[in-house]
Design goal:
The chain has 19 helices and 25 strands. By secondary structure, the protein is an alpha/beta fold.
């Protein structure tokens, strides 16, 4: 009789605690790790990890699979990057609680804030819930290729309690705040990991309206936070413009104090004020010195937009000539673009202020820390073409599937040094990949793979040791949301693992596939070098290909 369900043999185990890798095996039984080291017993299944790394499964605490999880079993693109736990319900948007009359409003908000096609949401969402506990019950009845957990989103909560007043951003009354406090406690007791909210003008519905939570007063935030304290557990995730840093930070700390809970705050380098993030991080450090638990949620690379004929945006989308072919098939668009007269009209109408010095072409060897010398502007300077002409030509390559890339956050100085500082800071945690969101313009769910390859192997200067990077994406992220049963390779913990051919691990170029409800497209980015992913002791992916196993479940509450 086999002693174990699974043994991963002969790998270098980087266990997530930050220490150096150690040669050994990992034995699994009943979904848990039971032995680490030299395992002599037999198993029902073995995975050969000779020459490979064995890490805990990656925990991604910032995703938006809230809709996808209601109709799909696979959380793409994150599944292809070794993510074994995904936390949804970020940025204050989601689909519960909700009254039937407000379905369309929440769809419009998610479509605008997170760039998920409304047609896909309208067709895909089954709406078999109203309250947040009912939403969790619905998710719990489903199976996935990874575990999913979720948070209570402020926008949905506000609209549920206040109706159109909440959507219009009216001030909440004392009764409104009391109701939100009670529903917050109810949601967390039912299994929400915590609460999320957005206070940024960048978040708007598809109609252009700011998110309902933009200007919520401190009394409302504190009242909701007291609901977290009433439940006795939970975390808070926030995003803010920090237009006035001191007063806004004080407002958030009042919330954290009322909740008696950890908080994470989105942190990035803005182009218009590239050193401002340091001041916010300084406030975060000060809050921790004062005894709070506050983390800046950071990214390992620039947050960048993908431009092209198969994405939501490209440099010529506002040209009147191009608008006439917008409804064409991809093949017909390419044919139209090959016409010299059409090209002349488009280039005449092309915006003169497009920053081609900050746009690059993407291929399988693309470096997400590109130099100015490889930008479209620099390449065009060595030809007889203008930058716009070169961009036009490149967009037609690969049958119209070639994508261009422009970084918008974390690339103010033309490098990723700010990201390196954020990764290594004492009070930060990895996040912001937005898996499941921005499906037509951003594919940053690949952050987790990039973290390892770029910072742990490929960067010529300032590399970061691999155990630190693994810890950052496993133990640290799990701990940040209270999931103490995963993120380490230790006996008694959940058997979520990755087996990685690190020398050959690489990101392939993003591409658009059309598998959302209504046939809508989304960006996908596969990898090479992920030999196996294990969730609860079952192998879910081998060499990037899905198995039949769907052991992933809803995670209710902290562990």
């Amino acid at each position: 009789m086999a002693e174990y369900d699974l043994v991963v043999r002969g790998g270098t185990v980087i266990d997530g605690a930050g220490g150096a890798g150690v040669a050994g095996d990992v034995a699994v039984k009943d979904g848990l790790i039971v032995e680490v080291g030299r395992v002599s017993g037999r198993a029902k299944r073995e995975v050969n990890a000779d020459g490979a790394l064995v890490t805990p499964g990656f925990v991604d605490i910032h995703t938006h699979y809230d809709g996808l999880a209601t109709w799909s079993t696979r959380m793409f693109p994150s599944s292809h990057h070794g993510v074994t736990t995904a936390v949804m319900g970020n940025c204050g948007v989601g689909f519960a609680p909700v009254k039937p009359a407000d379905h369309g409003l929440l769809v419009e908000l998610m479509e605008g804030v997170e760039d998920i096609p409304g047609t896909a949401l309208h067709e895909g969402l089954p709406w078999q819930w109203e309250t947040f506990p009912q939403y969790l019950d619905f998710l719990e009845a489903r199976s996935y290729d990874m575990d999913v957990a979720t948070q209570l989103p402020h926008a949905a909560l506000r609209v549920y309690v206040m109706g159109l007043r909440g959507a219009r951003r009216d001030a909440a009354t004392d009764d409104d705040i009391a109701a939100m406090r009670s529903l917050t406690e109810e949601a967390i007791r039912a299994g929400a990991l915590g609460f999320s909210s957005s206070r940024t003008l960048n978040h708007r519905s598809i109609t252009g309206e700011p998110t309902p939570t933009l200007s919520a007063a401190e009394a409302e935030l504190v009242g909701i936070a007291r609901g977290i304290a009433d439940a006795g557990r939970g975390v808070i995730e926030m995003i803010s413009d920090f237009e006035v840093i001191d007063s806004e930070f004080d407002r958030l700390m009042a919330m954290a104090d009322a909740a008696q809970a950890p908080m994470s705050i989105s942190l990035g380098q803005a182009g218009r004020n590239p050193e401002r993030w340091r001041r916010i991080l300084g406030k975060i450090d000060e809050a921790n010195r004062d005894g709070r638990v506050v983390k800046g949620q950071v990214a390992p690379r620039a947050i960048g937009i993908l431009l092209g004929l198969t994405s939501t945006r490209h440099p010529f989308m506002e040209c009147e000539a191009f608008k006439r072919i917008e409804g064409y098939s991809l093949a017909d668009k390419v044919r139209a673009m090959q016409d010299p007269e059409f090209k002349r009209k488009v280039l005449e109408q092309a915006p003169a202020d497009t920053a081609y010095e900050r746009i690059w072409v993407v291929d399988d060897t693309f470096n997400y820390e590109p130099g100015a010398e490889s930008s479209i502007a620099a390449r065009a300077a060595h030809t007889a073409q203008t930058p716009a002409e070169l961009a036009y030509q490149l967009m037609m390559a690969a049958d119209g599937r070639r994508l261009l890339y422009t970084p918008i956050i974390n690339y103010a100085h033309g490098n990723l040094e700010a990201c390196r500082e954020m990764i290594l800071a004492d009070n930060t945690v990895m996040g912001l990949g937005d898996g499941g969101a921005h499906v037509g313009i951003i594919c940053d769910a690949s952050f987790v793979t990039f973290l390892l390859t770029h910072w742990g192997r490929d960067r010529e200067r300032g590399q970061i040791d691999l155990p630190t990077l693994v810890k950052a994406q496993t133990f640290d992220t799990a701990a940040a949301v209270g999931l103490g049963d995963r993120g380490l390779i230790r006996p008694g913990l959940k058997a979520d693992l990755n087996v990685i051919d690190f020398d050959n691990l690489r990101l392939l170029q993003p591409r658009t596939i059309y598998d959302l409800p209504s046939g809508a497209g989304r960006l996908e980015q596969p990898t090479e070098g992920m030999l196996a992913t294990v969730v609860s002791g079952q192998v879910t992916y081998t060499n990037g290909e899905a198995t039949d196993a769907l052991p992933g479940r809803l995670v209710r509450g902290q562990r």
